[in-house]
Fold these 3 entries.
Entry 1:
Amino acid sequence: MGLELPTLGKISRDVFDRIILPNLGAPSPQVLVPPQHGVDVGIVDLGNGQVMAVTTDPVFIVPAYGWERAAWFAVHILASDAATSGLKPTFLAIDLNLPLTMTADELETVWTTIHRVCRELGIAIVAGHTARYEGCNYPMVGGATVMAIGPADRYVTPKMARVGDLVVVTKGAAIEAAGLFAVSFPERIAAAYGREFAERAQALFWQMSVVEDALTAASIGVRDDGVTAMHDATECGVYGGLVEVAEASGVGLRIERERIILREDVAKICQLFGMDPYAAISEGTLIITVRPHKVDALLAALAAKGIAASVVGKVVPPEQGLTLIVDGKEQRLEHPRVDPFWAAFSRAMGEAG
């Protein structure tokens, strides 16, 4: 077949297109948005003017983060993808395949935190499975599906960006990469930048969600009246997310790198661990395309919630391609393909050991 799986991380578009996409079970006219590369959610028509957005991800639990912090993040990873539809996350089905080393007390902390976070977000847990198995290990301890239900004319997907839209990015680059390093290697960061810096940087962890970003964005209007597409910049960061939106929508982009927020603490952590912040994993960063007449309302709504955001470029016709402007010079905006976070994290773990 000539295809290869990645050493780490998500499969490539070629693997998705050749193996996954042609084999999606029984066709259904109710599936409005089927599985697609770079698209966070599927959309199912429920009838009577209602749709359901569905997303599935691993349950990602890292004991080193602390059980409560790890469980908070596990829920927000899932809810963030669902919220990029513009619909409020509503239901959760969860499968926990627990390592043999996990104790009842640890499970209680994880589960009560999942319950608390779901309650805060308005998500009802409707189904699940919980067991211990050999061969299971952290951080992937199962999988979960979040569903969001709402009006058929109120959802968006990364396929809906239009020529003429402006591109807005919230919070900035590498929020997740910096946040995970901050809680995993505080002593190394303190040695480089001081104890106060290291302690402040750990607050980045709680920024690793786009639930509030996405629901706030959708509140100003969608489609013709506002936001046309949303996508969280997870694997391969801002660069990867921008390219995925462009490819899903069949459009071009013209992006100015200097307009993408890069926090000082993020930049320093990325420099310390050898990561390109614009290509590094960034749950917490939301890419939004919006009709020009609503961009001021969007920025105002985000600011009212304390969410930093900036206009970083515009959507252009596909024949103009993907352009990244760096220091006034144009170059092609390309998908990083391999996220630098994984190799950097592995190196740091080896050095810590």
Note: Residues 100 and 132 are 6 Å apart (CA to CA).
Entry 2:
Amino acid sequence: MIRRFGTPPDGARRYKRRPGAYVALLRGDDILVTRQYLPETMDAPEIQLPGGGIDPGESPIPALHREVYEETGWHMTPPRRLGAFRRFTYMPEYGFWAEKLCTIYAARPTVRLGLPIEAGHEAIWMPKSVALRVLFNEGDAHFLSQL
């Protein structure tokens, strides 16, 4: 059984399974996170591990490299899998309720190619100790605390 973080599922709702890959990008005691701004759908920006959904036909590792580049502008070393968790949430950018199956990895950033190319994302370096307090979801924080 894959551990769940966050709100339990509502039995009256239908959830679409949405697999995703996310990464803790560590450099010394610092971690690279993203601040996601979606003013039309959120009251406040969210601090998240870089990553996102795995598109149909896409494998997790190429999806992770793509998402990291889009959200941070960085490339990374080959990632090491840490584990996975589930989270039930509404995804306003897609207009549906999702059972997010989040696989978490660890890697090191290698080179920054530019600014994030995905709208509404800002790449931020912060101490790991700060990230543990401000990450938007408990699952991300759980896996970061294991490193």
Note: Residues 73 and 116 are 5 Å apart (CA to CA).
Entry 3:
Amino acid sequence: MTVRVLIADDQELVRAGLRVLLDTQPDIEVIAEAADGAEAIALARRLRPDVCLLDIRMPGTDGLEATRAIAGPDVAEPIPVVVITTFDLDEYVYAALRAGARGFLLKDAGPAMLAEAVHAAARGDALIAPNVTVRLLEAFAEANPVDTRDDAHGAPLLEPLTAREREVLAAVARGLGNTEIAGELHISLSTVKTHIASLMTKLGARNRVELAIWALGEGRGRRD
């Protein structure tokens, strides 16, 4: 199945470069380009692409605002969004995921990572740039005891996370799928699904993206 992609970036050369990289993939098709967030929103609502690839800093309506309009929690029929930027800032990662993005990449990620992020978003998973993920996991590993943590929507956790649940959560935040998590942690696929269901219950998360958001916010000592 071909993944249909909308690209939004205010620089024409960047859009052209992204199109070339994506069009070389046999199962990805770029169906439209936008020069700003407002145009991206209009095209996304009209064309209903499978994934939107949005720059953060654009004139007028920026990528974060466009993400909220296309994929935010209040959108009835959200479209998966991958945010791509030159700015390696944790604040942007958190803001993008909170806005509804299913991925966060830097523009030097390369064609393989770009294609992987598009496919991850299309299947409902989250992928964060590896260098950003390293900082996320380091912060997560050094986090305070569980009694100081909040769930994905700001309420106190009723049950602490087990050591295995922490490992699964870290893997989800890295954008790994269930099969990949099972292989990495040497557990069965059904066990992975059980842990993810438990994490969603304990953290009040509705999907894998919110699990990644919680991991990032918890790691930064932030409670939104």
Note: The longest helix spans residues 189-203.
